[in-house]
Amino acid sequence: MKDKVVIHWFRRDLRLEDNVGLSKALAEDFPVVPIFIFDQDILSKLSNSEDIRVDYIHQALQSLQEKLETVGSSLHVYFGKVQDVFESLLQQFDVQLVFCNQDYEPSAIKRDHQIEQLLRKKDIVFHSFKDQVIFEKDEILKNDGKPYTVYTPYARKWRATLERKHYTAAPSKLEGFYTTSKKKMPSLKDLGFEKTALEYETPSLTPGKINDYDQHRDFPAEDRTTRLGVALRFGTISVRECVKTALKTNDVWLSELIWREFFMQILYHFPHVVDTSFKPAYDNIRWRNNEKEFEKWCQGKTGYPIVDAGMRQLNQTGFMHNRVRMVAASFLCKHLLIDWRWGEAYFAEKLLDYELSSNNGNWQWAAGCGCDAAPYFRIFNPDAQTKRFDKDLKYIKRWNPNYADRIERAIVDHKEARERALKTYKEALNEARS
Predict the structure, then answer these.
(1) How far does CA 225 lie from the centroid of its chain?
(2) How would CATH label the architecture of 133-168+208-269?
(3) Residue 330 CA from chain centroid, whole number
(4) pTM
(5) What homologous superfamily is domain 1-130 in, according to CATH?
(6) Is 177 helix (H, G, I), strand (E, B) or coil?
(7) CA proximity to 86, closest of 4, 32, 9, 16
(8) Each residue's pLDDT tens digit, 331-357
(9) Would you kindly state where each structural domain of the chain is located, as residue ranges?
(10) Sheet holding 4-10, edge to edge
(11) What is the pLDDT of residues 283-326, one digit of tens each?
């Protein structure tokens, strides 16, 4: 006789506390088998064997495992194709129900539909819940029932709709897990990856950084951003906890959390943005796409100190300060006239806190082709940005100590590049109108 169980499938919710799907699973009358699947189809596309994100997930799972051991259970971690793993689970257990939390990316929606179909054939219900956002899908719409495409009115409606129930934590009673001895977890080597310098720490809402977030967030040398992007990306912290804290301490940080959800609903309602511009007219831009210049941008060798410092920070740590991300992205699209998709793909490969919706949304913003985009004629001057946000060159000296070579190595003149970008963008829009 196979044990009757329910399954909770961890994905972007790597925590036991305030986890909606897990809470619902534990409320059932059958023991909960917690699982995580390293998706072979996803990992096979990662070219760097020292991928910091895989290491982050692996360490977060080890933390989960330790907590589950204290209640006499274990995390079941698999490496393979998702459908194959579920077919194996159905042979091992008498599965009654499967629980998880929603993922809104197009590929994840397709995957979940396939698993739901597989389970339906066995008369097993697949339950998914809202957990990684406060409002999802169609919960924040314009009065005419259409999705918002501009941030400011979306944020206004988001705030007006918010009630305490939306950020109240899900019950965290850790009783009802399937009793079993500790299960062996695949090593990084088993997955085809290697250990990085990352040391996982349970994320926390550090009062100092959040309370003064609005005063320090634009100055990269101060390193006073919350660094919670990766925790929200993988669900090692609850968005409800973040919103509750932001409401008490810092409205600007709350606005950033709303931006995250704005881009998520854009991706959900307009999945074409994955590959094409939100505004089709901008697909007429005749990008230069000079591969040598792109390589110099990637390596942090453009000759513009703040751009190069940002790219070197990214390459070395998997993180880049948000203000510098905007400058570096604008430089690639406007100064070098290189397709935003090239930059987006590079960030997707390197960023520890990479999230498709935010990465895509912000790159299209920088290129001027997205929803709620800055006008195409807004072109960041890297030197002016340096004077404003890193006037003592502390950030630049930390990540780009040879910045003094800038004049000899500058890849392009700012004034000439600006004029070229304006001309190219204008031609593309005129072509779209004709």
Answers:
(1) 16
(2) Alpha Horseshoe (1.25)
(3) 20
(4) 0.93
(5) HUPs (3.40.50.620)
(6) strand
(7) 9
(8) 999 999 999 999 999 999 999 999 999
(9) 1-130, 133-168+208-269, 273-433
(10) 76-80, 32-39, 4-10, 94-101, 125-129
(11) 999 999 999 999 999 999 999 999 999 999 999 999 999 999 99
